[in-house]
Model the fold of this input.
Amino acid sequence: SMRGYTGSVSTLAETYQSVGSGQGQAVRNNSWSVYNNTSDSVTVYYSPNYAGASQTIPAKTGANLSAAVKDNNASHRFGPAPVAPVFTATSVQNEFTSYMSNNKNYYGGYYLWDNGCTTLTAWFVGAHTNLAYGHGNGEGVVRQLVSANSGLTSTGTLTSAQLPALYSVAPGYAVWGASGGSWGHTGIVVAINGNQATVVETWTGLANSNPRAKVSTYTIPTTGVTFVSLAGRTR
Done:
């Protein structure tokens, strides 16, 4: 069975219409192939609101869906897929510093001088994604973000294709900028070169400094550190 569309759909809720196997079943998370009969490209997304893994189908072309979105399709967008922004250590550091300087070191309930590292990750998720921020101390940022948003998973390592990403350091581990305390630590991974990860991180002590965040390099993977990829989720 098939279902036709004439425009973008941010959250699929329709069923297959034509006579054949699957008629009456949901289109969402239940599609193996696509034919694009339009004069422009169409991009199929893993998550609602044009987020997550995706596959772009050229005009007047049919294709089997890739493993990333086969039976995992929740939205589609007509027209060219938007180009994902590129985040560098300098761009994140400078943008965060500017925002903190202009907003009294405050973002969405987080004060840099009090909440420290989580102020940075809360700002980044709020400013550059459509995800719900899960809150918590640094050690819980990855876990809470995964819990609050479907389609996210935590991992013990990363590749460049998964960037940018957030990381959390578990309690008791004095690695990746953490002191070893029960609150852990968190930050943003912006680059990977071999087994070296470049991160942007901050602490309460940087509230009156310029810049408000520090760029650091750490070895990946490292015991006690978990990650969540934001690739395909940024704006």
Summary: The CA atoms of residues 35 and 159 lie 32 Å apart. The first strand starts at residue 33 and ends at 36. The mean pLDDT is 94.
